[in-house]
Amino acid sequence: MQQKILLVDDEKDMLEWLSLVLEQDGYQVRCAASGEAALDLFRHESFDMVVSDIRMGSGMTGIELLRQLKDLNPEIVVLIVTAYASVETAVEALRYGASDYLFKPFKLDEIKLIVRKSFRQQRIIPDARGQQKKMRDRYRFSNIIGKSTPMENIFNLVDKVARTNTTVLLHGESGTGKELIAKAIHFNSLRADKPFVSIDCGALPDDLLESELFGHVKGSFTGAISAKQGLFEVADGGTLFLDEIGEMSIVMQSKLLRALQEREIRPVGATKTNKIDVRIIAATNRNLEEEVQREHFRKDLFFRISVITVFLPSLRERRDDIGLLSDHFLKKYQGAAAQPKTLSPAAMELFLAYSWPGNVRELENAIESAVALSDQAVIQPENLPERIAAYRQPDTWEFSSEDSLKSKVEQFEKELILRTLSETGGNKTQVAKLLKMTRRNLDYKVKRYGITSRFAG
Asked: Given Cys at both, which of 119, 250, 321, 424 links 430, Cβ 3.0 to 4.6 Å?
């Protein structure tokens, strides 16, 4: 179907020339010699684009026509043409909704190019809006799985936070869904139609992290064969999610702090700075207050990023949600299977008793594995990952009646440390956090109880 363009100009020769050019390019063209005539045509016919001169005798100006066209159809593509090369005039036209502008005299290829580009944008924008709606729907707070009291408290807090531009710090163990909450904040905010950009600050060395965040100019370092836009600029107007910010070095913390304070960044190798408008959401599984005391994290940066701090509960602290989450992941991974799978009571009992050091991520992986490996409709404990299937609750352990209270406590403590070491792959830092004890105390217990095999390091 031919796209239809309305040309508006008080110069007859210009109208005839533009009509010929655009018709040769495959468009259907109608002409109007004034803004008033254009409005009358627009009210009675359907057009895909209007190309209008900005000054037309003593009648309606192109800017006035633009405003009235946008009132009639906010989606109409309007190009403004002017012989008066004024930046202020061009800016005014864009402010009132013009898609682009062109200065007279212009070349044949220029008008063809700008019309094609504007039509491409017209196709892209509805797709982008549809995608934004999908993202908003996906990340509505009501769509995040969780009915427990801790999660209801989280939803209430982030719902309030989302409507502001306040910097947010998300604190929680790995696998608790920090990025999910960050996206929910973004897609429920006034910045929802702008980019959400994320980066794992602990995954890159300083030089690469600086380039990723701030960009670089061509030739600024070996391998910089072209200029690169940094994530701050990519996220301009939107949200930048700095995951695992606690892993960032002191040097990079200083550079980040400057960018946040000045609201501008300097690409690597550049001499000029670029202004930025970005909302920051940071996340960490570290206790940053302790890191500040140990001088591993800058106090001024900590206060800058923790205006609002949201503590995400571990799965152990929201066991009421395990059933809901399990049902959600079962539906996700069994897809359109002819025979839907369910968890047996024994398997669900294990899920409710297990400590879940990997949190929601570990639960999802366990269900995905069980669905893939189970041949039956009902998933049994033997279909679960070994660490879960072999799990024993501490209160099921047997003790001799001859044991003293002290020896029973020590046996319980040793078993608990061994089990948690096993569940975390021997990560003592994580074990200390889970058992709420200092790393020094844990090392003392490990040595005292002779836990010196594969967990000695």
From this structure: 424
- Structural domain including 434 reads 401-448
Reported as a single tens digit per residue, the pLDDT across 92-126 is 677 777 877 777 777 777 788 888 877 766 654 44
Per DSSP, what are the bridge partners of residue 311? 171
* Residues 408 and 326 occupy one common structural domain: no
pLDDT tens for each residue of 415-429: 788 778 766 767 788
Q: What are phi and psi of 278, to 5 degrees?
A: -135, 135
Q: Is residue 219 part of a domain?
A: yes
Number of domains comprising the chain: 4
How many Å apart are CA 324 and CA 383, to the nearest integer?
20
User: Quick check: 444 pLDDT over 60?
Assistant: yes
**pLDDT tens column, 199-210:** 999 888 888 899
The answer to whether residues 189 and 306 belong to one domain is yes
DSSP state, 268? B
Collapsed DSSP state (helix, strand, coil) of residue 126: helix
What's the rounded mean pLDDT across residues 363-368?
Answer: 93
- Dig out the tokens for 456 from the structure: 């000695």
- How far is 85 from 106, CA to CA, in rounded Å? 12
d(CA 20, CA 219): 47
Report d(CA 124, CA 127) in Å as an integer.
Answer: 5
β-pair partners for 216: 228, 268
Q: How confident is the model at residue 344 (pLDDT cuts 50, 70, 90)?
A: very high
How far CA 441 is from CA of 124, 405, 444, 445, 450, in Å, comes to: 59, 21, 5, 6, 14
CA proximity to 367, closest of 403, 313, 327, 336 = 327
Which of 13, 21, 6, 14 lies closest to 112 in space, CA to CA? 21
Rounded to whole angstroms, the Cα distance separating 102 from 444 reads 75
Cα separation, 235 vs 118, in Å, equals 23
In this structure, are 321 and 407 located in the same domain?
no
- H helices within 190-298, ranges in order? 206-214, 231-234, 250-262, 288-293
CATH number at residue 374: 1.10.8.60
Residues 175 and 199 in one domain: yes
